């Protein structure tokens, strides 16, 4: 079976930035699972996985526009430090969590003041071309419940 509409793909990945530095990997842990076509992963990675089958191993290069977007300079703002979740001393360059009405989002600290901080709400990987080393572990038909919920269930997917 190939990855396509109404399928769940289970895969291991290693994510690298433009400099080739490893940023994240699923190796040594549970593989990731996603429902194809439900926008559960970045568009460029989903497009690269389309048509692949269990056992396929490949590298996918994803441009910033198909990953986390380009950096938008308008997405910087000043917020009270009490709205940020972090450990230790707050420093420029740290990626911390910002409490919003829609939940927590990762933000990058640009400048730290006594009671407030300037933050960048662009995704930390915005503006970067990314490389994914992929190993497709399994491809299966999605259940009706997964299609209705818009995500994969079970190991590597969403748990209810």
Please give a structural write-up.
The protein is mainly beta and 160 residues long. It folds into two domains: 7-68 and 127-149, Chitinase A, domain 3 (Roll), CATH 3.10.50; 73-120, Thrombin, subunit H. Helix content is 8%, strand content 40%. It is built from two helices and ten strands, in the order βββαβββββββα. Strands 1, 2, 3, 4 and 10 form a five-stranded antiparallel β-sheet that branches. A five-stranded antiparallel β-sheet has the order 5-9-8-7-6, with no helix packed on it. A hairpin with a 5-residue loop joins β1 and β2. The longest helix is centred in the first third of the chain and has 7 residues, at 43-49. The protein is elongated and about 55 Å long. The chain starts with 6 loop residues before the first strand and ends in an 11-residue tail after the last helix.
Short description:
This protein is mainly beta. The chain has helices spanning 43-49, 144-149; strands at residues 7-16, 22-25, 32-35, 57-62, 76-80, 84-85, 95-100, 103-112, 116-120, 130-141.
**Helix and strand run:** EEEHEEEEEEEH
- Report the β-strand fraction as a percent range: 35-45%
Please give the CATH class of the largest domain. Alpha Beta
The major sheet is characterized as: 5 strands, antiparallel
What is the 3D form? elongated
Helix content: under 10%
Regarding quaternary structure, what we see is: single chain
Domains (count): 2
How is the secondary structure organized here?
Blueprint: E1 7-16, E2 22-25, E3 32-35, H1 43-49, E4 57-62, E5 76-80, E6 84-85, E7 95-100, E8 103-112, E9 116-120, E10 130-141, H2 144-149
Antiparallel strand pairs: 1-2, 1-3, 1-10, 4-10, 5-9, 6-7, 7-8, 8-9
Protein name: Peptidyl-prolyl cis-trans isomerase
Main location: cytoplasm
Family: Belongs to the FKBP-type PPIase family.
